[in-house]
Design a protein that fits this description.
The complex is a heterodimer.
Chain A lengths: L4 H10 L6 H18 L34 H5 L23
Helix pairs in contact in A: 1-2
Chain B lengths: L7 H10 L4 H19 L2 E4 L1 H16 L11 E5 L26 H8 L3 E6 L33 H8 L5 E6 L5 H7 L2 E4 L19 E6 L2 H11 L29 E4 L10 H16 L3 E4 L8 H16 L34 H13 L2 H14 L5 H24 L2 E5 L15 H5 L6 H6 L2 E9 L5 E8 L4 H14 L8 H4 L3
Parallel strand pairs in B: 2-3, 2-4, 7-8, 7-9
Antiparallel strand pairs in B: 1-3, 4-6, 5-6, 5-10, 9-11, 10-11
Helix pairs in contact in B: 2-3, 5-6, 7-15, 9-11, 9-12
Classes of the chains: A mainly alpha, B alpha/beta.
């Protein structure tokens, strides 16, 4: 199984990871080798097997709907790279305009 | 006896009886950290002031005749994957440099409530991804038995600090072997509890259907002491089990007559180092001498464990790590800084779809290290349209087969024994250039997490070169009392767990 450089670039955008040209080369090579390795699972017959997403047979877990204190605005913002005291500040959400 | 030579059980007894102050115990370990950690790099943060203040408060409490918690005066090192409101929490990543959690992890809160003394945060593979600690953004941990070798990972700092007596006990986390493998390579005892036994609220999430927090210590008895405090239901973690917590320390001495331990002949295949194989077979002989019966069993899908794990874990990681967006907390790329090609548009060479997306992509590219990026990419790929069924869904089906192997095995045996790693500690740098070779290090440990059961590892011998060799026991869900009892019985017959590396003994 091998991935193309284009596949990897597409995944990079989905994963929100900027990849340089040399990153793309390395990542294409490494991911191809890992995907080749995990593809060994193809050989196992799982025709009548249902997927197991979670080791516990947990049903819905409920708790009482009781109000309790949550983080203050200051606590929520304390590690934010940029904020104005009330909101997180981010660059423009639409269009390719300058960063905030 | 020096507090650093005492078991955790004896240390808390001495504090409770007034034979030792919490302050003295804490000072001794802080002094050892100061003396030794320059060579080992087990700690990312040491809270000297906070630890001494906590210890003094515990002593004052005792003096005033107030009741003390079950871990009163016990110094504890905590893996840097657990949130601490008064200490940095980096997960050994540049992404979280400067991050200060607004709350304590449930386990940290329980340690504080039990009057333990948190001495610092331990080094690890970035976001708990790795088996050698070389993926830390703050430099690797050096194995106290041989400073040129890896301590294992990802809880390598927790394992190394206990091995070098810089803390009597430590907290680790285990997603595919991250407690058991470094415990084995550092010659200490480490327990991965059943999935859901310990609350993970405030543990930085890696793979949520696999992650579990557990104790690391010099003996099973000390692990039992720590587990009793950290285990139990937490309404803040919907996957934590709402079941009573046994008194883990009370049943350790019951003999092993009637206990059946499974041995998997396929574990002794070509990749297993002969010295490790020999020590593991000797441990089976010791268990037989202790009254247990050894029965050969088959785990037909164990071979598929690593491939299954390296789909399930990266898929979950790619989702969990999507939260690092450079907006709410963590690293943020500066506008106009280093410019990388946008991932999705290499052909056009053009811009990102918006300044926000550019900030996301560049912040994450700068903040994450290579292994974390690899796993995010692998998981994103395996979950993407057209590949989901072939990779992620397929892995979940094989996961069910692996769990079924355990259910079948535990019809015949009470425990499964075997090696924890194929070799003793390897050299730093030996495997770091080959991601796949590093993944195979997890061969004997990942299935435990995929099945959601418990496992423990402890030393069962040494190589001719003086490196510890680990033995692993696995048990059905919630059979921690048996895991701890079997290990404790073994540790009464042998003294491997009492051996200390030269660096721990030699005052400099």
């Amino acid at each position: 199984m091998s991935l193309s450089r284009n596949d990897v670039a597409k995944v990079g955008l989905l994963a929100r990871l900027a990849l340089s040209d040399s990153d793309l080369d390395t990542m294409t090579r490494e991911l191809s080798s890992i995907v080749g390795f995990v593809s060994q699972l193809e050989k196992i017959d799982t025709a009548d097997v249902s997927p197991l997403a979670h080791p516990l047979d947990t049903q819905n877990v409920f708790r009482a709907d009781v109000p309790k204190p949550s983080l203050t605005t200051a606590e929520a913002l304390q590690s934010a790279p940029r904020h104005d005291g009330e909101c997180f500040l981010v660059p423009a959400v639409l269009g390719d305009t300058g960063a905030a | 006896m020096q507090p650093s030579d005492m078991s955790a059980v004896d240390l808390v007894t001495a504090v409770r009886q007034g034979d030792l102050t919490a302050l003295r115990a804490t000072e001794v370990f802080l002094e050892r950290i100061e003396r030794l950690d320059g060579q080992i790099n087990a700690f990312l943060a040491v809270d000297r002031e906070g630890a001494l203040r906590t210890a003094a408060a515990i002593d004052a409490k005792r003096k005033a005749g107030k009741p003390l918690g079950p871990l009163a005066g016990l110094p504890v090192a905590v893996k840097d994957a657990l949130c601490t409101s008064d200490l940095p929490t980096t997960c050994a990543s540049k992404m979280l440099a400067g991050f200060r959690p607004p709350y304590d992890a449930e386990v940290v809160a329980r340690l504080r409530a039990a009057d333990a003394v948190i001495v610092g945060k331990t080094n690890m593979d970035e976001f708990a991804m790795g088996g050698s600690n070389e993926n830390s953004a703050f430099g690797p941990v050096h194995n106290p038995w041989d400073l040129t070798r890896a301590p294992g990972g990802s809880s390598g700092g927790s394992a190394a600090c206990v091995a070098a007596d810089m803390a009597p006990v430590a907290i680790g986390s285990d997603t595919g072997g991250s407690i058991r493998q470094p415990a084995g390579l550092c010659g200490i005892t480490g327990l991965k509890p059943t999935y859901g036994r310990v609350s993970r609220r405030g543990l930085v999430a890696f793979a949520s259907s696999l992650d579990q927090i557990g104790p690391m210590a010099r003996s099973a008895a000390d692990c039992a002491l720590l587990l009793e405090t950290i285990a139990g239901h937490d309404p803040g973690d919907a996957t934590s089990l709402d079941l009573p917590v046994p008194a883990y320390g009370t049943d350790l001495e019951r003999p092993l007559e009637g206990v059946r331990i499974g041995r998997v002949p396929a574990h002794f295949g070509a990749g297993l180092d002969p010295e490790v194989a020999h020590a593991v077979e000797e441990a089976f002989a010791a268990f037989r001498a202790a009254g247990a019966t050894i029965i050969d069993i088959d785990m037909p899908h164990a071979d598929a464990g690593v491939a299954t794990y390296y789909l399930v874990a990266p898929c979950e990681a790619s989702s969990n790590l999507a939260r690092y967006d450079g907006a709410h907390y963590g690293h943020r790329a500066e506008p106009g800084g280093h410019r990388a090609e946008p991932g999705g548009a290499p052909a056009s060479g053009g811009g990102f779809e918006s300044a926000l997306v550019e900030m996301y992509c560049r912040s994450r590219a700068e903040g994450f290290g290579p292994e974390v990026k690899r796993r995010i990419m692998l998981g994103t790929y395996a979950l993407s349209a057209g590949y989901y069924d072939a990779y992620y869904a397929k892995a979940l089906k094989v996961r069910r087969l692996i769990r079924q192997d355990y259910l079948d095995a535990f019809e015949k045996v009470d425990l499964i024994g075997g090696p924890v790693s194929a070799t003793a500690a390897f050299k730093l740098g030996e495997k770091s250039g080959d991601p796949l070779a590093m993944y195979l290090v997890d061969l004997y440990t990942v299935c435990t997490n995929l099945a959601g059961v418990g496992g423990i590892s402890f030393p069962c011998g040494f190589t001719k070169g003086g490196l510890p060799i680990g033995f692993q026991l696995q048990a059905p869900a919630l059979a921690e009392p048996l895991l701890l009892r079997a290990t404790d019985r073994y540790q009464h017959l042998t003294d491997w767990h009492r051996r200390r590396p030269a660096i721990a003994a030699r005052p400099r």
